Write a sequence for this structure.
């Protein structure tokens, strides 16, 4: 097979492991047999899988090479809006790998699990403190799973009041998972529009909120990266009709130590530990979407719940009559919890506040540096991310997709594109707090150069990316006829 050298020095057209196999090659050495031979029944030895025959170094090089074709936060800036792809300090991974934690067994007795239970209990308390809420469940496995748990809590609340409601209000700036979670709970989504400043007006909510509406589900900061400034007035309207306010807190990275959702009228909130609290996000690894609630809703939280007893020991309580039940096997993704616990302790209150301040500063710096080049639909201070569009490049026949693909040639992961849906051709940039000014300046410079290319050399954008393992994909065919092997 012909090999070409890519710009980054990687060998392209790598054969599959099976194609590299050479009969008789082996990557292990087995000691000489020193026990009596025993013949196994043939149904146990027949039909062994045909594994490739390779040496250890062949295998190591193969997988190392594949990993280098990937792009991750450890390789460069990854400004994927709404995803908080920040750098996750490795020390948190070290704590999560400590044998006493990594090998703790979910079926071990309570008396030998006191340490793990204490970590979970303390983490719940820290998250209460950060969010200004009264109780937390750590069970949900992801943000959307947390939304489902939170909506089940709201459902249980109305059921207990004696009358279930049929609708839920969801603004156009909410995350796409919100209506899906509400629908799973049987609620009909009532979509409302944000105002000319990209946020919700209390009057818009007042018009649709009634006594058949379970509440509102909003994302704050919203998916335009803007803070819902009218949140208190909105929550007053919803509460006055007996509804509850669900806050999607996946964007907590913008407001830690600055705003406590529990203090501005939010009743139920989920967090994404795999965005804000030190677990890498994406790649299909485990995450966690804890749900925080106000005191009045604590009784509905999933079981088992962790209880601290008077003698400072911890136990799991399974018999809670109003609980929505279990959301996951055992107690959730414990190693993700350990990373969050370790992160919160290493950062401290001041450190977490600084995280949010820097995340917001960096996004505003990018917004101000690029707003004369790319169209900025909402020219107001943003939170942790800013949203441009391709309107200024339309006259050159260049789209957001072309510019995002070209960014890869400059060594950056593309930002989120075509989301949020409220703006046409969105380019949503979330730099996070962990990028240095130098890196952010490089990123700004790259986007400025790309805007110049759009005008003077659009061809180079149409065919981008040029240096990646695979070039521009036919996205329709890729979705309809996925080729998962190579
Ligand atoms: C990422 C995100 C979610 C969904 O979280 P998952 O863990 O991917 O399920 C929900 N809401 C917002 C605002 C998000 O950014």
């Amino acid at each position: 097979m012909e090999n070409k050298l890519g710009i980054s020095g990687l060998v392209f057209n790598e054969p599959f492991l099976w194609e590299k196999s050479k009969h008789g090659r082996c990557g292990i050495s087995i000691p000489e047999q020193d026990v009596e031979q025993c013949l196994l029944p043939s149904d146990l030895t027949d039909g062994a899988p045909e594994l490739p025959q390779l040496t250890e170094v062949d295998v190591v090089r193969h997988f190392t090479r594949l990993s280098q074709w990937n792009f991750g936060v450890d390789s460069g800036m990854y400004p994927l809006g709404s995803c908080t792809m920040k750098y996750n300090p490795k020390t948190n991974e070290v704590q999560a790998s400590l044998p006493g934690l990594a090998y703790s067994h979910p079926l071990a007795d309570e008396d030998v699990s006191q340490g793990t239970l204490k970590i979970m209990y303390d983490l719940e308390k820290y998250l209460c403190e950060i969010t200004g809420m009264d109780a937390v469940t750590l069970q949900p496995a992801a943000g959307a799973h947390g939304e489902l748990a939170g909506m089940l809590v709201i459902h249980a609340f109305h059921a207990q009041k004696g009358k279930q409601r049929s609708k839920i209000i969801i603004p156009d700036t909410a995350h796409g998972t919100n209506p899906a979670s509400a629908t799973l709970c049987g609620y009909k989504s009532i979509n409302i529009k944000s105002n000319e400043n990209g946020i919700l007006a209390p009057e818009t909510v007042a018009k649709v909120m009634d006594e058949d509406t379970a509440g509102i589900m909003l994302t704050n900061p919203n998916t335009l990266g803007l803070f819902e400034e009218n949140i208190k007035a909105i929550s007053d309207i919803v509460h006055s009709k007996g509804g509850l306010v669900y806050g999607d807190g996946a964007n907590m990275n913008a407001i830690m130590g600055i705003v406590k959702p529990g203090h501005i009228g939010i009743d139920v909130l989920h967090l994404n530990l795999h965005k804000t609290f030190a677990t890498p996000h994406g790649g299909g690894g485990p995450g966690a979407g804890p749900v925080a609630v106000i005191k009045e809703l604590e009784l509905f939280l999933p079981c088992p719940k962790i209880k601290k007893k008077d003698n400072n020991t911890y136990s799991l309580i399974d018999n809670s009559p109003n609980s929505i039940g279990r959301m996951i096997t055992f107690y959730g993704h414990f190693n993700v919890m350990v990373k969050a616990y370790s992160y919160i302790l290493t950062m401290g209150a001041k450190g977490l506040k600084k995280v949010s301040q820097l995340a917001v500063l960096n996004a505003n710096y990018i917004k101000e540096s690029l707003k004369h080049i790319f169209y900025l639909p909402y020219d107001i201070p943003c939170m942790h991310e800013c949203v441009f569009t391709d309107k200024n490049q339309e006259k050159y026949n260049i789209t957001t997709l072309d510019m995002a693909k070209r960014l890869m040639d400059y060594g950056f992961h593309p930002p989120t594109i075509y989301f949020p849906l409220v703006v046409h051709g969105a380019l949503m940039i979330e730099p996070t707090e962990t990028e240095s000014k130098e890196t952010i300046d490089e990123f700004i410079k790259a986007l400025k150069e790309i805007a110049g290319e759009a005008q003077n050399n659009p061809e180079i954008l149409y065919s981008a990316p040029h240096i990646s393992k695979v070039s521009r994909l036919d996205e329709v065919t890729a979705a309809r006829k996925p080729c998962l092997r190579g």
In short: The chain has two domains: 90-346, 350-480.
